């Protein structure tokens, strides 16, 4: 238990959590750390967030703390802002009826045991009692942690029927924890797989994003494949035999790798399905396009390549190719060339003003593009050189 305590106490939000705990305890309330942070600490891992579960109601939490955020008062979820941190403080609850496979129509505030039982997987349903530094385990979660098994709390099929998002969370946690999915849980996921289509795009995106940056991505993808989740969401996809991890990547970067083998219309459908932002969508499309025909990109003149590389998706696609050992020399040269300009490409020496009354229509853009390419290729060193290049250019075309 000492190790768990040390890990939890080393979290930057620990002082805030301790202050919240003391306040609640002083007023006679229970306060436990709950869910992912307890699971991760037991696995010897640093937790993302420290979440608190308590028997104080949201109204009481609002009353006791100076600054709170109402995340979902009717569902018992508040956040307390304290000491630069913003901590989830949720009231022990059990969920009422699930009508739409998404969320309960109401919740009832209840006991720690009931709160553990409404959670998705046993390893996610543990509490850490901050008073006597003990684990509270109502669902044999510690056993499953030891066995490295992902199992639903209670009857698997019912739990997936209640909330279809849990289907994809199953694959995500298998990948994240590198755990096998228990056979009953896997069978229920398979039986229920089609229901994953009712999950909102934003939630699919978040879970897929987490899955694709997990410890064992191939395992998560295999679970998706074996249960039929992949067929339901990405029917075009063939199994990823090898998955190369690029740690520290953004979601769109990992998604671009996942979507790399899609045809164009499947790519667009998947982007729609996952409700990606414009920035994410652009990044993925730009990378995808380059991966389709890297030779075409590499055959462009340097000035055009450098301009294209202002798009994050293009640079990302090149970095991936290079890491795969493809076109290494050419790409390295390009990346170095791009870096020689610092964070941004320089402003063009010439602008539309310089061409006023001298050229018409599309010729203006073509001339400026040519001048800018020559500038980026370092054939034109300053504005003076650019202006004299323009003189001879105009003589040629007029
Ligand atoms: P992570 O490290 O990704 O944050 P986590 O376990 O904290 O993992 P969250 O999605 O942050 O996962 O959820 C926090 C906790 O809330 C979970 O551990 C689980 O107990 C519970 N939970 C979250 N989503 C659901 C759900 N859809 N159904 C049941 N319980 C859930
Ligand atoms: Mg969490």
Labels describing this entry:
Beta Polymerase, domain 2; single chain; 53% helix; alpha+beta; 398 residues; seven-stranded mixed β-sheet; 10% strand; two-stranded antiparallel sheet; binds magnesium ion; binds adenosine-5'-triphosphate; elongated; 11 strands; Hydrophobic Seed Protein
TL;DR of this structure?
By secondary structure, this protein is of the alpha+beta class. It has helices at residues 2-9, 14-26, 36-42, 58-64, 112-117, 141-147, 156-162, 165-177, 183-192, 201-212, 217-227, 229-233, 251-258, 264-273, 278-292, 294-299, 302-308, 312-323, 328-339, 352-355, 362-376, 383-397; strands spanning 31-34, 52-54, 68-72, 77-82, 85-91, 93-95, 107-109, 127-129, 134-136, 149-150, 180-181.
Describe this structure in words.
With 398 residues, the protein is α+β, with helices and mostly antiparallel strands. It folds into 4 domains: 1-147, Beta Polymerase, domain 2, CATH 3.30.460; 153-242, Hydrophobic Seed Protein, CATH 1.10.110; 244-345; 352-397, no CATH class. Helices cover 53% and strands 10% of the residues. The chain has 22 helices and 11 strands. The strands form 3 sheets. A 7-stranded mixed sheet has the order 3-4-5-2-1-8-9. The protein has a two-stranded antiparallel ribbon with strand order 6-7. The chain has a two-stranded parallel ribbon with strand order 10-11. Helix 1 (2-9) crosses helix 3 (36-42), helix 8 packs parallel to helix 10 (201-212) and helix 17 packs across helix 21. The longest helix is centred in the C-terminal third of the chain and has 15 residues, at 278-292. The radius of gyration is 27 Å and the shape is elongated. The N and C termini lie far apart (84 Å). Bound molecules: adenosine-5'-triphosphate and magnesium ion. Magnesium ion binds next to loops.
